[in-house]
Amino acid sequence: MKNIMxxxxxxxxxxxxxxxxxxxxxxKLAVRTHIESWSIAAFERGERLPTRKQLAAICxxxxxxxxxxxxxxxxxxxxxxxxxxxxxxxNTTCWKCHQPMKTVYGLIDGCPIPxxxxxxxxxxxxxxxGVILAERRSGTTGETxxxxxCEHCGAFLGEFYLHxxxxxxxxxxxxxxxxxxxxxxxxxxxxxx
Length: 193
What we know:
The chain is α+β, with helices and mostly antiparallel strands. It has helices spanning about 10-20, 25-35, 35-45, 50-60, 65-80, 120-130, 185-190; strands at about 85-95, 100-110, 110-115, 130-135, 145-150, 155, 170-175. It has seven helices and seven strands; from the N terminus they run H-H-H-H-H-E-E-E-H-E-E-E-E-H. A hairpin with a 6-residue loop joins strand 1 (about 85-95) and strand 2 (about 100-110).
């Protein structure tokens, strides 16, 4: 028998599931745990991790304390080590003056975020790249947000239009200090209930 404690969660889960006669298929495990089979497939392919609640249900059905230990370890690592990037483009065309402007948005574990959600360190990196970020009042929401501003005419690109930029960056900058983006365990558990 293989030592599953040396395997990543995705491999360990598939190995333990296939050895369990009551849950040898993803469909059987899905029925017993009330977790969609496509989610179970994503866990086994390593595309994402289960929530702690899903992990508990899977490990209960598979009767594996080792799998739970591996899963808890990987979930905790993912919580404390988010992948934070700044996506920078120096070739965005200003909607007002049609001059090139520098723009940014962020990614946290692959999910886009606006400059409004940036940490102070990220804002400094953007300033060093020549991006102008400034507080502007949105005519749509009536709220003030940190936005990309054109250096030529002062027009700004609000959050609504950031989707036009997503994945059109000319450079991706890895953010080393991610401490502002590490959620508390309690916050994660409250969100999942």
